[in-house]
Design brief:
Length: about 230
């Protein structure tokens, strides 16, 4: 099995995840530079999975519907197109299918099991992922609005890294840097880039969330996958 021909760098993911799937020419219609290409999705659950893969600092490339599998089954051909192909920074490969657990019936489970066997045969990982947990999902949606590099103002970012060298409440630290309306977009951008860290799993992101510079004070829960691999 060959590898997919297209793998979009994760940081060039769509125009922003909220835009939705608008076709192969969508980036240009949205006024984005020509180097931007969209990663499609066919449901909100797929969109959230793509968003979480984009958020994962280990993922450097992402493509949707990368290939189609066709195999004989009971006298007829069956086929399946996985939802995503992801490239981790270590050069390995991950094939991702997205389906909420309560929608995985016996037939779907057989398809996913076959896909996993094929992936294993060529040294690829296979992840079957479902709905994002709460409150991680709304927290991720919030940060995704600020993922674009235009949200990063270098002087503000430098001051935020210094202020959050010690753990502080989000709003307390932001107001030490300047006006919150100017500072918060940069702060959220740094959280998206994992230059600042916070617990995005246990509680909604808010003014009282404890934020620290990455690598200071030990790790905080911040899942980089939609769900753990099966």
């Amino acid at each position: 099995m060959g590898e997919p021909a297209e793998a979009v760098p994760a940081w060039e993911y769509a125009s922003d995840v909220q835009v939705g799937f608008v076709g192969f020419g969508g980036a240009q219609r949205l006024g984005l530079p020509t180097r931007y290409r969209l990663v499609g999705y066919e449901s909100w659950v797929e969109r959230d999975a793509a968003m979480a893969l984009d958020f994962d600092p280990a993922i450097v490339a992402l493509a949707s519907q990368p290939f189609r599998l066709v195999w004989p089954n009971g006298g007829r051909d069956r086929e399946h197109t996985p939802d995503y192909f992801a490239r981790p920074a270590d050069g390995t490969a991950v094939v991702v299918d997205v389906r909420p657990e309560n929608l995985v019936d016996e037939e779907a489970a057989a398809v996913f099991a076959f896909t996993e066997r094929i992936c294993e045969s060529v040294g690829w990982q296979f992840w079957l992922v479902g709905d994002l947990g709460q409150p991680f999902r709304p927290n991720l949606h919030r940060l995704a609005r600020y993922r674009h590099p235009r949200c990063c103002r270098t002087p503000v970012a430098d001051r935020l890294r210094k202020v959050f060298g010690e753990p502080r409440r989000l709003l307390t630290g932001a107001e030490r840097v300047g006006d919150r309306s100017a500072v918060l977009p940069v702060l959220y951008h740094l959280l998206w880039r994992h230059e600042l860290t916070a617990d995005l799993v246990s509680a909604p992101l808010g003014s009282g969330t404890v934020v620290r510079r990455a690598g200071r004070g030990g790790p905080t829960p911040s899942p980089s996958r939609p769900t753990p691999p099966p």
